């Protein structure tokens, strides 16, 4: 089975490049299952219902998010009806939505879990406690984890702790693709960050001029999503006998 996991889709540029390039990637790489992080798809923060429907229309199987999942108020109202739109599992349990889902595809049970980092991020519950409980009761064939976190060491530590117990752990959030895609010793695929699917000539999605102004002056500045041409960033996993056998990066220019 070939699995495609795509990093944070940012605003219109991200949507446009997905619409243009996703089908080509799927066809050329015989993709069977698609996970996309929709954290920033709606104007740079959050995901509305129209953009959820947009991703589903492209054939995306599961949509993950992160710390901006509820930036669009509308998401609180529809997320209970869209179980394939995840919010981090280790958020407050009273929030709507689910942080993990099992999807049956090609005769296999594929679990996707969404987690939020605890370093340099808003409050979230302990990921190890959450994952230990989840894995103890899990009978899925494949388990994919999107760890939406800031600190690279936090991402790598979680992956090593569950090496051999999950199929893959991929990092999202920083919008910067990392060059460390690998298979850990016990068979878990890992990359520190998938990178951003959005405008190339930007500062993690925003117009450079506004970011520079804030950095130079310290004045409050509203960042606007760049509308420059976009690129897709992600990875492809080749899974055989329920384990990751190969991982490689996807980047369109």
From TrEMBL:
Binding residues for Fe cation 2: 39, 67, 148, 173
Pfam families: YmdB
Binding site for Fe cation 1: 8, 39-40, 175
Organism: Spiroplasma chinense
PANTHER family reported in the protein's UniProt record: 2',3'-CYCLIC-NUCLEOTIDE 2'-PHOSPHODIESTERASE
Keywords: Metal-binding
GO molecular function: 2',3'-cyclic-nucleotide 3'-phosphodiesterase activity; metal ion binding
The protein, known as: TIGR00282 family metallophosphoesterase
Active-site residues per Swiss-Prot or TrEMBL entry: 68
Signal peptide: none
NCBIfam families: TIGR00282 family metallophosphoesterase (TIGR00282)
């Amino acid at each position: 089975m070939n699995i495609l996991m795509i990093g944070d889709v940012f605003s219109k540029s991200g949507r446009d490049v997905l619409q243009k390039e996703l089908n080509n990637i799927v066809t050329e790489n015989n993709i069977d299952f698609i996970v996309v992080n929709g954290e920033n798809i709606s104007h740079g923060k959050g995901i509305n219902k129209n953009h959820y429907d947009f991703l589903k229309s492209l054939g995306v199987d599961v949509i993950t998010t992160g710390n901006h999942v509820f930036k669009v108020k509308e998401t609180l109202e529809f997320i209970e009806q869209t179980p394939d739109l995840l919010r981090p599992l280790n958020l407050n349990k009273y929030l709507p939505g689910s942080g993990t889902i099992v999807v049956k595809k090609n005769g296999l049970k594929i679990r996707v879990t969404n987690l939020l980092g605890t370093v340099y991020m808003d409050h979230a519950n302990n990921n190890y406690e959450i994952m230990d409980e989840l894995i103890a009761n899990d009978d899925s064939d494949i388990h994919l984890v999107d760890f939406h976190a800031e600190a690279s060491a936090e991402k790598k530590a979680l992956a090593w702790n569950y090496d051999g117990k999950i199929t893959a752990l991929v990092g999202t959030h920083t919008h910067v693709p990392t060059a460390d895609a690998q298979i850990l010793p016990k068979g878990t695929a890992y990359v520190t960050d998938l990178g951003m699917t959005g405008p190339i000539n930007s500062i993690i999605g925003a117009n450079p001029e506004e970011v520079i102004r804030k950095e130079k002056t310290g004045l409050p500045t509203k960042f606007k999503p760049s509308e420059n041409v976009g690129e897709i960033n992600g990875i492809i996993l080749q899974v055989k006998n329920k384990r990751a056998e190969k991982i490689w990066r996807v980047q369109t220019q």
